[in-house]
Amino acid sequence: MNLRQLTALCEVVDRDLRISHAAQATFRAQSTVTRQIQLLESELGFELFVRNRNKLLRLTPQGEEILQIARGMLRDAENMRRIGKNTAEDATGGFTIATTHTGRKTACRTR
Fold first, then answer.
1. How many helices (H) and strands (E) would you count in the chain?
2. 88 near 56, Cβ under 8 Å?
């Protein structure tokens, strides 16, 4: 299982079970989204959706559980990306020191 498969699952659910709309949202071909779902179901060993021919009707009870886990995993992956980005920005940030010039010369005296 991979993040693309989990993203495909979430997008299909978020797009009212319309694979074509999920494909558009993820900039992928409809066949690619279908294949990602099939691979995920194959790896899990059960169907995520109740189907009528080629139409998705609803999530199965197991599909509901997997959807919640998938959303958490995708959220965690995004958080890891954000941490990496923030760390990279911190490491390459600039450092500026500003001073003012008074134009007055001062002398130091020692006693």
1. 4, 2
2. no
The pTM (predicted TM-score) of the whole model is 0.76
Angle at 69 (CA atoms; ends 39, 18), nearest 5 degrees = 55
pLDDT in tens, 14-25: 999 999 999 999
The answer to whether residues 22 and 15 touch, using CB atoms and an 8 Å cutoff, is: yes
8 A C-beta contact, residue 50 and residue 60: yes
Residue in the block written with tokens 């002398």:
107
Domain over 3-80 is classified CATH 2.40.30.170: no
pLDDT confidence bin for 103, thresholds 50/70/90:
low
